[in-house]
Amino acid sequence: MSELLRLADGNGNSGQPSGHTASAFALATAVGAVLPPASVPLGMFACAGGYSRVHTGVHYPGDVIAGAVLGSACASPVLAMGHKMLVSGGRG
Known about the structure:
Largest sheet: none
Strand content: under 5%
Number of domains: 1
Number of strands: 0
Structural class: mainly alpha
Order of helices and strands: HHH
Mean pLDDT: 87
Shape: elongated
Number of helices: 3
Helix content: 55-70%
């Protein structure tokens, strides 16, 4: 098992949080908070996207976990700002 089949050439981003996973989890968290019935399917798609990054060999599992945490964490302040704008009528 010393040789592993890589499905994609690494682009040198291994060891950094996965941006694809962060984006997917940010979307799933934000839309899931506004539209709860969509939260489970979106969460499943976000997880599948993260898995694909590891499966193709372009990220380590820790990179994907960090991307998921980062994306979910970024969605929270965006939701708070959106709620504040809606309550204030867009006056900041």
